[in-house]
Specification:
By secondary structure, this protein is mostly helical. Helix 3 runs parallel beside helix 6 and helix 5 runs antiparallel to helix 6. The termini are far apart. It has one domain. The longest helix has 25 residues.
């Protein structure tokens, strides 16, 4: 009889627990930071491997990846809106998800508005390359400010109540 009952048993999905919700929620809230961190890593990698031109050729593919993050977070936001539909005022988690969605959209819009040409991409990549403080200090010591800069008279450029130091 057990074999017969097993043959008609419904294959139920695993039970969704509070831990599952919290993991799903935190994973989605982390998407803006993940996309930004992934961009920094990608920019540094293409700079180190001299593949900036290749990334520019694949701009559409990278944009699809970022849009995939937007779509994923938007789907989660829709679920949250549905769950919060009968609550007044809306629960705090909904505002956090909406903010994360706005952040991801802002990341996309900001990056791809600035990145139209290969030169644009080079400028964006350079911004992601950190210059060590020691290297900056050494450069400043090797290239001091010209004395003429110190001798400039900025009086006409300052508000009336201030004087040139």
């Amino acid at each position: 009889m057990t074999a017969l009952l097993d043959s008609v048993a419904i294959n139920r999905p695993p039970r969704f627990t509070r831990d599952d919700w919290e993991r799903l929620y935190s994973d989605h809230l982390a998407l803006p930071q993940q996309l930004a961190a992934n961009w920094r890593t990608l920019a540094r990698t293409v700079a180190d491997t001299k593949r900036v031109e290749q990334l520019h050729e694949e701009r559409g593919e990278y944009q699809s990846i970022v849009r995939g993050g937007i779509d994923q977070l938007n789907s989660f936001a829709e679920l949250c809106r549905h769950l919060a539909a009968n609550n007044s005022p809306p629960p705090a988690f909904l505002a956090e998800v909406e903010l994360a969605l706005a952040d991801v959209r802002g990341f996309h819009d900001n990056l791809f508005a600035k990145w139209q040409t290969l030169d644009d991409l080079y400028a964006l990549v350079v911004q992601e390359i950190p210059v060590p403080t020691e290297r900056l200090k050494a450069y400043a010591e090797a290239h001091p400010i010209p004395q003429s800069w110190h001798d400039e008279d900025f009086t006409g450029l300052m508000p009336e109540n201030e004087t040139n130091p």
